[in-house]
Amino acid sequence: MKIIVPIKRVIDYAIKIRVDASKGPLGVELKNTKMSINPFCEIAVEEAIQLKEAAAKAKKGDAEVVAVSIGPKQCSETIRTALAMGADRGVHIETKPDVRGDYIDLQPFGIARLLKGIVDREGDVDLVLMGKQSIDSDCGQTGPFLAGLLDSPQATFAASVEREDDGSFVVERETDAGTETIKLKPSGSPAIITCDLRLNTPRYPTMPNIMKAKKKPCETISLEDMVTELGLDLDDVLVPKNEVIEVYEPPPRKEGETVESIDDLLGKLKEKGLLS
Description:
Strands 9-8-7-10-6-1-4-5-11 form a 9-stranded mixed sheet, sandwiched between helices. It has a two-stranded antiparallel sheet with strand order 2-3. The chain has a single domain (2-251), classed as Rossmann fold, CATH 3.40.50.620. The chain has helices spanning 39-57, 75-85, 108-122, 142-150, 207-213, 223-230, 234-238, 262-271, and strands at residues 2-7, 9-11, 35-37, 64-71, 89-94, 127-131, 154-163, 169-175, 178-184, 191-195, 218-222. By secondary structure, it is of the alpha/beta class. The chain is globular and about 70 Å long. Pfam families: ETF. Residues 25-230 form the Electron transfer flavoprotein alpha/beta-subunit N-terminal domain.
């Protein structure tokens, strides 16, 4: 079984985002800002490793987990995090810095086309496990786009994933009305599953595994070479399908008022027209 896990380098979820209007549509300060693996991608890596461990325990053959990242040179650090967690090897599609620094605004459709190239390149891929969305753009579109390009069965917002003996995947997925369970049957193309928050709790890499990760293979391919290999034009990947007009901070909330009693509170609400 071969599992591909796309991962994204984003601003760390615990960092307060600083808006910088001088940067134009991107609008956020990246210099000296801590970056880390996208939390939903981290959950996908953990699930892939658990599926690998379950296959080994049940003696159902070897499994391989391949972490894939698209972005600047620093994405190699993100891949090393996945390797330290237990992924077997990495593939890095490296993008060159643009005028705004190390960040190129690749959008979901362009990313999906590159990931399709990786799947075709690897061959015999059984599953693509990925986060349901990234915490910077919140698009949640890459998984469905990739499923469409590959003509693959897909399940989004997975809360539970199990592999059956026939190679199918049973997925419990979250919906607005609760959960539903669906089965992705083998179809000649890999199943696409996007992971939700409650799927698992990612492990912390141990120091021995961090050291071992430095020796695990990580292939680097330039974006230009990958695009050429796919027979595409660079603009097919880089030109955005939608445009961000402006990024700005929400207006500060007005300070609250302290009241001495319920009657004072009701009086204030009536005064402001919030209570009739």
